[in-house]
Batch of 2 targets.
Target 1
Amino acid sequence: MDIFANDDQVAVILAHELSHVVLQHSSEILSLASLLDLLILPPMIALHAFVPNFLLALLMQWVANVVVSLTIKFPQRRKTESESDIVGLYLAARACFDVREACAFYQMLNQTVGLRDLE
Ligand SMILES: [Zn+2]
């Protein structure tokens, strides 16, 4: 709580986190992960049917997970963060907090710890 300059900054962050819940981002990400697992399964089964090698199956699973994470999961996660940034500002504004404090807070945070450490 020491990093916040005022209640408005606390409200902006809480509203951001609350918007994740309101927008059901956890369910969205878990659903996407399940779908991707189902899509990866048939090629993995086919590969194992033709080349029944346990180490090759492990390697291909790892490669598939990396490719899916880089091309689908990470961009999706970034999209949910951006969505929560916007919706969070609306929620904080509706609760009569000064959302202009978000800029000051994020700039301070970026200068002190870097935004990458927060995700
Ligand atoms: Zn977030």
Note: The CA atoms of residues 66 and 112 lie 30 Å apart.
Target 2
Amino acid sequence: MDSELAVTAATATPTQQRTAPAAGPLKLEVEDVGIGYFSQRHGSFFEAVRSLTFNVPDDSLVALVGPTGCGKSTFLRSVCGLLGYQHGRLLVDGSAVTGPRADCSVVFQSPALMPWRTVERNVGYGLELRGTPKAEVRDRVGHMLDMVGLSKFAEHYPHQLSGGMQQRANLARALANDPVLLLMDEPFSALDPQTRDRLSDELLRIRELTKLTVLMVTHQVDEAVLLADQCVVLSRGPGSVVEGVMDIPLGRGRTVDETRHQSGYGPLVRQLRDMLRALEPAESASGGR
Ligand SMILES: Nc1ncnc2c1ncn2[C@@H]1O[C@H](COP(=O)(O)OP(=O)(O)OP(=O)(O)O)[C@@H](O)[C@H]1O
Ligand SMILES: [Mg+2]
């Protein structure tokens, strides 16, 4: 493990890292993006995100962290085209986001599986909508269920699954659409620590297998360091901006348990926690995260 690199990142300032150029092709380009909500009833505008600029390199996992209410979920909604943005450039795989995109899949905190469909038919739903031939749906769904370890539960209904299994099915559904970018909004936060570790390892393994690019929102500092190649830290809302970008050079193909034992892990967790503490309002800054 490259502990020398890890220490370098842990001691570098956020500003130094923010100015470092991104290497290689980019899966998501975000330049001066501003997003807000109009209320027709009140004739008002609420600025959730002011001027975000950062990139997600191809074949990377980037964690988006920041105080509650700073606009992380809002931003993910704009990336997949469910919510318009007011200014800036937002490009997925080189093309501007102008509306809902079939090439981005989203995994939310709660699995939101359709209770009347079996696991298999939930996972294949997006493919069915696209008119994919039945045999191809069956093959692809079978492959995805295999990947997340749910093959034996294909015929089960969501209520017959544990929370962790439901989130696995949700992940399989997102992957079945073969997205160029997987967006995850606190996907493991409702799970117990052991299940979270297991699913985190699965995500890391699937990523290595598929070379999928992932942008993941998380509140958990340790989760961000365990999983990500890079953490993008947003400032406190309203009108949040990118506060800093932190590289996590802990290596590819790692497992969460191995990572916890690396010498670079602790300093990175502390650095990220300190950055987030500094963003808390004065009255709650003494509380731990
Ligand atoms: N539909 C909406 N209409 C108006 N304002 C909204 C809407 N959705 C979110 N907001 C506001 O936008 C801001 C950002 O909300 P958002 O849910 O994106 O934050 P977040 O960073 O995901 O928070 P958390 O970490 O708690 O999930 C908040 O102030 C919220 O009240
Ligand atoms: Mg949110």
Note: The chain has one domain: 3-103+179-280.
